[in-house]
Amino acid sequence: MVSADPILHFFTIIESQGGVIVKESPKLDLDLYIANYQGRTRFDRLLLIGRSSVPLCVDALKAAIAEAKGGKDVQQYRDAWECIRIAAPTESESQWDSAWVEKTDKANKLETARLEAELKQYKNNLVKESIRIGLRDLGEHLEQIGDLAAASDAYLRMRPEASTQAHIVGVAKHIIGIVLQRRDWPSVLANVSKMLTGGMSDEEQKAHQPFQKLVAGIANLHSDKFYEAAKNFLEVGDPSICQGCNDVVSSNDVATYGGLLALASMDRSELQSRVLDNSSFRNYLELEPHIRKAVSMFVNGRYSACLDILESYRADYLLDIHLQPHVRAIFSAIRNKCIVQYFIPFSCVTLDSMNKSFAKPGESLESELMTMIRSGVLKARINTIDKLLVAVSTNDRVEMQTKGLETANNYEREALERIRRMNIAAADLEVKGPRKGVGNAMSGISGGETWFDDTRRQLSQAESSVG
Amino acid sequence: MDQALATCLAFPPEGALNDDVAYDQAIQAHLLKLTKLLKEPPVPLAQYGGQLLELTDPEYNSLSYIAILHSLVLPNVLGPREFILDKLVKFLLGFDPRQIRYAGSHLLEILFAVYNGLLPPSVAVEVISAAILKIDPTGSMFTSTHIQLVKLAYNTNNIEPAMKVVEKNIVFYPGMANWKRPTTLCDMTLSPSVYIHRETGLTGNVKAAIVLEYDMLSGMMFCSKREWNKAHATFERIVAFPTREGGCSKIMAEVYKKWVLVSLLSKGKAIPLPSYTGPAAAKAYQTLGKAYKDVASLFDTTNAEELRSEVEKSSQIWQDDQNVGLVKEVLSAYQEWQIKNLQNVFSKISITEIRQQTKSAQTGTNLNSDDEIEALIQNMIISGSLKGVMEKNDDGTVFLTFLPASTVLSEAEYAQELTKTAIQLKALEPIFKATNERLGASREYIKHLIKEQKRAADKSELDPTMGFESHVDDEDLMGGVTSTA
């Protein structure tokens, strides 16, 4: 094991940078996995796996180098090389290929200059369509060489030149492609909604739907809006069109993202109707049968089995470019939901049986239950003496009575306070600020008015809560 | 002497004056006679004043009594001091509030002298609070005597006798607009806001700062009695005191700091400012009360160590603001609140586990022994702040069972509770009526009313052109178009 040490060293560096490290072997096969994708995302994914997965590190980095060299982006090559240089100094890929870099650099500059010159010429000719094409070519080229800022600039300039609906959609797609790579999630959502506007025929709508839903889902996922993201993924639609979006995600990813997020955010009946009975999403689920199994386990109330399945795939999820930062949150959401659902039919469960279903062997669930109860997810109380989890029985009668009395008391207090304030104002006893002329006096008056409005609102709320 | 005595005893006359007007006339005439008597006494009053006091009844001849008393104690006590002061106390505890309305300024001067040391503080507080409640049994009107009372009570630590005044809800303030001298001052149905006025002499001038100071001192009195809920409500009145033109006074800012600490003690967590807090004041609080906010935000976390260090970090601030005592209270209350919060998670829990899960903010660590925790919980249960019982298991573990906060009331009990609140609400009626009358009769309101009426009249004239019918026509037209299309 000569290479063990440099890899250890490499991952120590990654850890110190706060990166995620996956020691377990994932179930995926690197070559098959990456064959699902096209475009720049291939490199990003390879690099991520190289930087995260201990068993796949060297293979992934080597593939990343090859991928980078196949393209025109020098920066990508540099990034991958920086990694492999530390992780596997003995491999032939760890030698800096300066000849290729220089050659590519030079070719890139030439190409940029050529395209810019062409564009200039088009502009002189004032033909809208060719300007658009020129800008598009320039943008695509800049994207390929990794100059994302300039590329998005070029794409943005296409917008005024767009003359048909298809053009506008094309521009939006290009821009979304860029902002996705720059991980600017709010702009992704903004551009998706831009894509939606305009009178598109049903057919067009259908053709664009997968892309729209995909990117919106990804953006929502990264904004921690799991429920919205799940809905997006579940509505992706036609798998054959979705296949064409594999420069962003593959159909397998759609199944994984959609299923996981739905598990994390939906209740049982919703899972049944929206996931399992969803005919278009079924096509995706067939690609990832374990997700389907997990969902149906959950729906059937076999929570620990569901969690076991997901747990066994954890390494895979951690190596996904979009899921990686959210795995922990998604898993804990699913776990919490399992515990809550498990507990619903009971008024009282022994902690032992809870531990048996959910806790890792030898560990106790208690502290997790405590956090869940504290945060209000689980409505129960722990009895540590008899080792029970007891449901909170709400007594509506008591609640009504306390509420009624409380409202009456609040009414009295508020009435007194309001009369008091009126009288203070009448006696001219308010605390006054330094006088600063008419404008200020006006604002003082309006302040008084807002106060009256405010209390009135409070009062009416209190009344309505009684009724 | 006999003549003077006859004058003094002449009011109230034998037989009832059952009419307010007659009473008013009689008392006015009596007042004139008294003034004359005191202005040109046949013999200097000092010689026989004592006798007069002996022979008149402070409860029955209150008006004459105060006239003599006033000349005997002010500016200096004339005659045997102890005897006169004894009479003074008797009078202040028992005067007739109806007659005294005609001698407001005399009473005020006497009370001021009492405040300034005529009587020893412990007696002074007692008689001043008695006098305040004699004049206004509802205690709903603020007077200049109130501030003297709380200052004296707080500074000399004679809090208890002042509590009966401090606990009243004050809603009226002297100097309110639209005051009119009542025709018959002796009318016992008058609202205190009518007969207590600078003109009747029952109160002096009052400024905003005085009102604030009164509330602040009463809040601090509640604090010293550890009645945190009442203290919190009182401080909140100051924090949200009505302001104008971006005003915020120093007292408000100081009290805000106390309010934050007391809200931790009474509610266990930081409370947002009331929505009607002055915007400028709210802004000032944010910067001035930062250290307090920081402590408050740590109070309902489980991080005792951090809370402790935060408190230590700002110890200079607590000292400067004279809040060391309250901060200490906060620290010692921390663990109690931790234990109370456990009932949101546990239904039964052993004492040992409580000890492991809660920390004392005074030391930043867990308590040393289960016995300490047990004692603490025992105290909390006894004081009523925690509802629960401690029991012992067969194997010797002591554990705490939390009981539900409120038990089901039977229908009858509930009805009783509701009637109680209804009565409280009914009690608001006179206050409401007085305010309503005062506001309803104000010039601004009447002007506004006339304007509204005019506008309503204008509107009805406009109606035919912008009327309902034309609108319907319009819609019919549209309906026709759609149906033919």
From TrEMBL, chain A:
Keywords: Cytoplasm, Nucleus, Proteasome, Signalosome. Gene3D superfamilies: 1.25.40.570. The keyword Cell inner membrane does not apply. GO terms for cellular component: proteasome complex. Pfam families: PCI, RPN7. The keyword Kinase does not apply. It is found in: Cytoplasm; Nucleus. PROSITE patterns: PCI. InterPro entries: PCI_dom, Rpn7/CSN1, Rpn7_N, WH_DNA-bd_sf. Residues 225-396 form the PCI domain. Belongs to the CSN1 family. PANTHER family: 26S PROTESOME SUBUNIT 6, COP9 SIGNALOSOME COMPLEX SUBUNIT 1. This is 26S proteasome subunit RPN7-domain-containing protein.
From TrEMBL, chain B:
Residues 51-278 form the COP9 signalosome complex subunit 3 N-terminal helical repeats domain. Residues 456-485 are annotated as: Disordered. Transmembrane segments: none annotated. It comes from the Eukaryota. The keyword Nucleus does not apply. InterPro entries: COP9_N, CSN3. PANTHER family: 26S PROTEASOME NON-ATPASE REGULATORY SUBUNIT 3/COP9 SIGNALOSOME COMPLEX SUBUNIT 3 (PTHR10758), COP9 SIGNALOSOME COMPLEX SUBUNIT 3 (PTHR10758:SF1). This is COP9 signalosome complex subunit 3 N-terminal helical repeats domain-containing protein. It comes from Apiospora saccharicola.
